[in-house]
Amino acid sequence: MLFNKDFMLGAATAAHQVEGNNVGSDYWIMENLEHSVFVEKSGSAVDHYNRYEEDIDLLKKAGLNAYRFSIEWARIEPVEGQWNEKEMEHYIKVIDYCLANGIEPVVTYHHFSSPAWLITKGGWESPDVVRYFERYAKYVTEHVAGKVKYVCTINEANMRLQMAFLIKDITERMSKQSEIQNQEGSVQVGVNLSQNQSQMMMSMMETAKAFNIDDPRKVANFVSQASEEGDLLVMKAHNAARNAIKAVDSSIQVGLTLSLHDIQCVDGGEENAKKAWDDEFTHYLPYIEKDDFLGVQCYTRKIFDANGANSTLETGPKTQMGYEDYPMGIVNVVRRCAEEFKGAIIVTENGIATSDDERRCEFIKEALTGLNDCITEGIKLKGYFAWSLLDNFEWQKGFSMTFGLISVDRNTMERTPKNSLKVLGSFIEA
After folding, report:
1. Which of 72, 77, 104, 156 is catalytic?
2. Tens of pLDDT along 275-325?
3. Catalytic status, residue 156
């Protein structure tokens, strides 16, 4: 079973997680607080900023034909309204290197990390974020027009709402520390809930002070809880960016990506499952109906009963991230999205955090076999990007989560391709 040459088969990264020394970002500040919730600092990460050619070469050698990566807003606009042409030129070089090697670049304009100055101005809860992001999208597109065919405006645009649900649940469980820690696996992003309540409070206060915000509850990073208005602001920012991109180059295919679970239920859980899917997906449909594609990202499932999500109903082993190893989740989610979203679909992230690369190989085989069936059924699936090309910095969890198709010795920065990279490449026509 092989995908044809027109299918984008590749791997993905995010700038802050792989590049290193992203000193102008909000994440850099939060990592370096005295009572940081991050278990370690990103530092030089895996030095992809300087070694992108080597990494793209390894991707190409494995037979892959596409690479999804993000442009770091904090590098491009480190000070409000001041563009860094040198940094923009760096990303153009990455794009050009992809093109010179027959690799399709799929570029994400925002992948969780933001310029620190944006957070001091209210971040992702301020209406001003819409025009700030629109201006940034216009600037970048003016430089990449004619080179890039696919742009994801915002990675996991629903993550802020998922964080709101997580924090609400944590608040209700505050008296049971062990139960709080078990909630880490309920979102598909690296969060650290191992600190005690006092440490968390210190971290919140230090974060607010770092961004010159009086109330710790008003610090609005992208991976923080959203109000209903904040959730809508992300959609407004996406729409404004899409329009700005199209105004510069109407040929660019534009979409966003969503973090989705394969929502399942047992008897009595139907209404809870329906609400969960609406929260994660359905209520966004009016804001993405003009998009050219939808980026689908799924790592696992959630099973609902009459009381809500019930992880005890999951039968598979847990990944390093704490959620269930469930490769068919991405297949089920693609089918379900295709019922409601009529544009093209791209799997922009899917993978498994494990130290067992043999299991990663099997995970890839199971997921891609199911996705090939989706294409046979007539679903407009245009690509699949494994997360991640490299073992990298999994946000608050640090470097311990090994999602990568390539391992990295962070002392020497030596790259070692895993067998899973070769297995992934074997699914595309030569």
Report:
1. 156
2. 999 999 999 999 999 999 999 999 999 999 999 999 999 999 999 999 999
3. yes
Ordered domains of the chain (ranges, CATH):
8-425 (3.20.20.80)
- The string of pLDDT tens digits covering residues 138-197 is 999 999 999 999 999 999 999 999 998 887 776 665 555 545 445 656 677 767 777 677
Residue pair 221/114 in contact by the 8 Å Cβ criterion: yes
Total-model pTM: 0.96
Q: What is the spatial distance between Cα 413 and Cα 410, in angstroms, rounded to a whole number? A: 5
